[in-house]
Specification:
137 residues, mainly alpha, Arc Repressor Mutant, subunit A, 3-stranded antiparallel β-sheet, 51% helix, 7% strand
Length: 137
């Protein structure tokens, strides 16, 4: 008697394409590239976790901390928790952007543009004055 084995329910607990630390780092680089400005931690969280549910908030924070230590992401904690892609991170993103699944990239583009306009037009999370005009070139 060969019965089909059922897949355990916990296998489906983390659906999505992004699971490994490498995947999360690539997603963060891509997200910050799409924002192209200083972004607060809440916006980064909303965009990345909104684009893919295969990882947790704590996985994302670990990956973001690692990217900062590697010099791929700049942070400005004097104005609050704001982050942007460094020039070194932008170069690496050009190489790794294809490692992010197409549907996840599309979701990031959609969420990043919507989030940008919400922040600017609705003043939900205004940038501090010293960061307003700074964008990565």
């Amino acid at each position: 008697m060969n019965r089909k084995r059922q897949t355990p329910a916990y296998i489906y607990e983390h659906s999505g394409f992004v699971h490994t630390e490498y995947d999360i780092k690539c997603l963060l680089l891509y997200t910050l590239d799409q924002c192209n400005r200083w972004v607060n931690l809440t916006s980064i969280t909303d965009i990345t976790l909104g684009a893919d549910r295969g990882f947790t908030y704590f996985d994302m924070i670990d990956a973001l901390t690692s990217l900062i230590k590697l010099g791929l992401v700049d942070n400005n904690e004097s104005a609050g928790q704001y982050y942007r892609l460094s020039d070194k991170g932008a170069e690496l993103n050009e190489i790794t952007r294809r490692d992010v699944e197409f549907t996840v990239r599309r979701a990031v583009r959609k969420l990043a543009s919507r989030r940008y306009f919400e922040d600017i037009l609705l003043k939900n999370a205004p940038l501090p004055k010293e960061l307003e005009n700074e964008v990565r070139r």
